[in-house]
Amino acid sequence: MNDPLLLLRRLDAIGASLRDSGQARALLALGSVGSETERLDEYSDLDFFVIAAPGRKQQLIDDLSWLRSVSPVAYHFKNTKDGHKLLFEDGIYCEFAVFEEEEMKSAAFSAGRIVWMTEDFDASLCTPRVPSAPFRPDDLSWAVGEMVTCIYVGLCRYARGERLSGTRFIQSFAADMMIACAPHFEQEQPGAKDRYQNERRFEQRFPGMAAWLPRIIQGYDRVPESALELLAMIEQYAHVDPSMKRRIIEEAERLIRSR
Questions:
Q1: 3-state DSSP call for residue 81?
Q2: pTM value?
């Protein structure tokens, strides 16, 4: 955990380091350190893009001296061709990517905050141009069908001894679809939406549905119980085919009795 003000100061220091290196054109902060600083807290990390000077992208990716000069680095690894995940020794964690100016025209990202830029940099490149949104099904009956069939297949996998696969079908695949369907089931409360992930700040945005989460995600050893609770939750909001309902209940209860 870190002082939120320390995170912002660290970003300013990174911007100054990039300026002094002569290898960059701008530093764009994203997420809670970007244009959503009202969300900034001691659990936040640093997400940012570096816009490289012409021909300097790879050097900025391969040689992290521009970060090491700001604060000692404890760990990092190159998680994409464009950037790294990195932990400073003082506990500040960051994820970043480095792009050429031309690449920014087709990059997918949420609106951010320019921390530093050269005088002649085109700031409009830091405005997202590629629309993106998390998956939200328009056809609720299709989504319900996906959920109940994932639950049933998951129970069958679990019964076969494929417990990991069964767990994922019910507590990941079906649960993820339920989360994606949340706007169909409950009035969304005010809160910062994430353009890429439905689960971000779900508890604040959909408190009624979030109350079910401990019951539908009970873990590896309680897959049948999770299946029954997820089925009950779906039924609270939508129609479930009686044949699928019966088969799910029968199989889940049989698995519970057989322990």
A1: coil
A2: 0.69
